[in-house]
UniProtKB/TrEMBL annotation, chain A:
Pfam families: EcsB (PF05975). Keywords: Membrane, Transmembrane, Transmembrane helix. Coiled coil: none annotated. One of its GO terms (cellular component) is membrane. This is ABC transporter permease. It comes from the Bacteria. The chain crosses the membrane at residues 21-46, 52-71, 105-129, 135-155, 291-320, 352-372, 378-396. The keyword Membrane applies. The lineage of its organism: Bacteria, Bacillati, Bacillota, Bacilli, Bacillales. InterPro entries: EcsB_ABC.
Length: 401, 243
């Protein structure tokens, strides 16, 4: 039986769905305007950074370092569903075509991600590292590495049922270290050293291929990974349109929870729940963390108080739009609605939670703004602005509860 | 006391699932809610809990409806759903802490009850674990422990025994018995008729949204004119009559 067409069918359906979501986002209210403003600011920040960065700055190390993460992170896109364990398991021996298509697709997509990154950093490469011809050679070598990494990720997945997590983590760590080494040698134009690193990578590939069994396939792992990829996309789309909540991985994050418990020792039931939801549902905290980092980078790039005020507004607004995922009752079990907590108290504690998070973000951005502009007044102004925006958002935007 | 009067309701006004249901559950009483799948048991429970708005009729706890005093109403009632529901981001211990906070229980009393419940359900070793890794039976125990931590005036249980191991079933039955002794009014929906016959004081036999038989086993035998019938016989005769 040919199973490759099933993969193609699932992929096409998924793309169709993604297109529908993108269309909905594009049609939604002020979203295109906000995205447009964001990209303009990004472009301005990027240009300023290019001009500001001294030629002696070791750009090659930063680019190589980031490239190594692109090379190592090779999540396979399989579109495997939980139900496949029931319906496709009997076809396990005939699934080669399906997974070959999946590996091919994943490698192409990861290469495209890498190319996009290299395209974005090309101005830095041109200014600090080498000419266009050498850059093309760099691209080819990095894509070759990316392809090898793609196959290794597949064999690592096959090893999941029979090897310990520690063993697999060690393999990934070794792979990442070789990727760092190879990237550094590529961007420093040490071709002989790159050759040695490449041989090391090839040896690891052969080792993994020899170790990996053909069966059983790690169905549950694929289903879980697929769910986590989807959850990530859904959460991003959720900034602009309502998306269903998918199960995401829970991370214990003891230190984060303890820190918040320390700062807020007597918590109401709802804040107790929200804090844990926010800290432990991995996608949420990482999305808000990334948002904070991006806003900070843009602020570093543009040293104007007015731009900082606009960026703080956008940053806070985008965070606010994510927060209902923590407080909306639809995402909680039935008990949440049965607690003897009246609706005024519910609103009060949801607002409290929003305010704490947004003010925390405001304080950080205000400090960054003051540091960039070398002005205490700038910090004061941006913090006051952030507090005002938070109050306005909390009071006048629809409160999901 | 739980008092339900002329309750009609369902998911759409044009298609009510339950029709003019009236019954009460007295303190220190356990009432079994039985019926086929789709008879209206879950709809009845959802209407009592306020998860569905009744088309007509009232639900009162100690003489007050949900609308009259939502916080008081909710503080007097606990619910154990059929399908395990839990917060995947909270450990077992944190589920119990959250319940303590939400119902504003005395922390010392709650702490003692927590230890007793963890012991009774043999869950001490799992108190720091996240329930996503639990078996279905262990997930069920979280809900049972949370409900009994509250010690409510009214307890609504939907199919409590499914998935529980024999020791946990015994622990639950002991808790139900002691809850009854302390004045709890318990409404229990179950398909395990033997268990219901043994432990419930009265029954409500629902069929197609109507109460077909109600009362103690003796009273239901009289209603059905079957003096020696078991609960199962009455159930099969009533519920299976037109299917």
């Amino acid at each position: 039986m040919h199973t490759a067409p099933l993969f193609e069918e699932r992929k096409d359906k998924s793309y169709l769905k993604a297109m529908r979501i993108v269309t909905m986002v594009a049609q939604g209210g002020g979203t295109p305007l906000v995205i447009g403003a964001f990209f303009i600011l990004l472009y301005m920040g990027y240009s300023s950074l290019l001009e500001w960065l001294p030629t002696s700055f070791p750009t090659w190390i930063i680019i190589a370092w980031i490239s190594s993460f692109f090379l190592t992170s090779n999540r396979l896109r399989t579109w495997i569903k939980t139900a496949d364990l029931t319906y496709l398991l009997p076809l396990e021996s005939e699934m080669k075509g399906y997974f070959r298509a999946s590996i091919r697709y994943s490698i192409i997509v990861h290469n495209l991600h890498l190319l996009l990154f290299l395209f974005l950093v090309y101005p830095f490469v041109q200014l600090h590292i080498s000419n266009f011809q050498t850059f093309l050679l760099m691209i080819m070598l990095l894509c070759l590495l990316q392809t090898l990494n793609g196959y290794m990720a597949w064999w690592e997945a096959l090893l999941k049922p029979i090897r310990s997590t520690k063993w697999l983590r060690t393999v990934v760590m070794i792979r990442w270290m070789i990727n760092v080494f190879c990237s550094l040698t590529i961007f420093k134009l040490y071709w002989i050293w790159f050759g040695i690193g490449f041989m090391g990578m090839f040896a690891l590939l052969l080792f993994l291929k020899k170790q990996a069994p053909s069966y059983p396939l790690p169905w549950s792992f694929f289903a879980k990974q697929e769910q986590s990829i989807l959850a990530k996309y859904y959460r991003i789309a959720n900034w602009f349109v309502d998306m269903p909540q998918l199960p995401v991985e829970i991370k214990e994050r003891k230190i984060g929870v303890r820190m918040l418990d320390f700062f807020f020792p007597s918590q109401h039931a709802l804040t107790f729940l929200f804090i844990r939801n926010f800290v432990r549902k991995s996608e949420m905290i990482s999305i808000i963390g990334r948002l904070l980092i991006w806003t900070s980078i843009l602020m570093i790039g543009i040293d104007s108080i007015w731009a900082h005020l606009v960026l703080i507004f956008i940053g806070l607004w985008m965070t606010y739009e994510q927060l209902p995922q923590v407080t909306d009752q639809r995402f909680y079990p039935v008990w949440y609605r049965l607690y003897p907590i009246d609706s005024r108290d519910r609103k009060k504690y949801i607002r409290w939670f929003y305010a704490i998070l947004l003010w925390g973000q405001t304080m950080l951005l205000g400090i960054i703004s003051g540091w960039i502009l070398h002005s205490f007044l700038a910090s004061f102004l941006t913090i006051a602005w952030g507090i005002l925006i938070t109050v306005l958002l909390i009071l006048f935007r629809k409160l999901h509860q | 006391m739980l008092q339900v009067e002329n309750l009609s309701g369902g998911y759409a006004r044009s298609h009510p699932v339950i029709h003019n249901i009236s019954f009460e559950v007295q303190p220190s009483e356990m009432v079994g809610l039985i019926g086929l799948n789709g008879a209206g048991k879950s709809t009845t429970i959802k209407n009592i809990l306020g998860l569905l708005h009744p088309h007509q009729g009232t639900v009162q706890i100690n003489g007050k409806t949900l609308e009259q005093d939502p916080t008081d109403f909710r503080s007097k009632i606990s619910y154990i759903p059929e399908i395990p529901q839990f917060y995947e981001e909270l450990t077992l211990d944190e589920h119990l802490q959250l319940t303590t906070k939400a119902y504003r229980l005395d922390p010392q009393v709650a702490k003692q009850r927590t230890e007793d419940l963890l012991e009774a359900f043999r869950m001490k070793k799992a108190r720091k674990w996240f329930p996503g890794t639990f078996s279905k039976g262990m997930q069920q125990k979280i809900m049972i422990m949370s409900a009994f931590l509250v010690q409510p005036s009214v307890l609504i249980i939907d199919e409590p025994f499914v998935g529980l191991d024999p020791l946990a079933i015994q622990a639950l039955l002991d808790l139900l018995q002691s809850g009854k002794n302390q004045g709890m009014a318990i409404l229990m929906s179950t398909h395990i008729l033997e268990m219901a016959e043994k432990y419930c004081d009265r029954f409500l036999l629902l069929h197609e949204g109507h109460i077909q038989l109600h009362g103690s086993l003796t009273e239901m035998r009289k209603q059905a004119n079957r003096p020696h019938a078991t609960l199962e016989d009455l159930f099969i005769e009533t519920a299976g009559s037109d299917t």
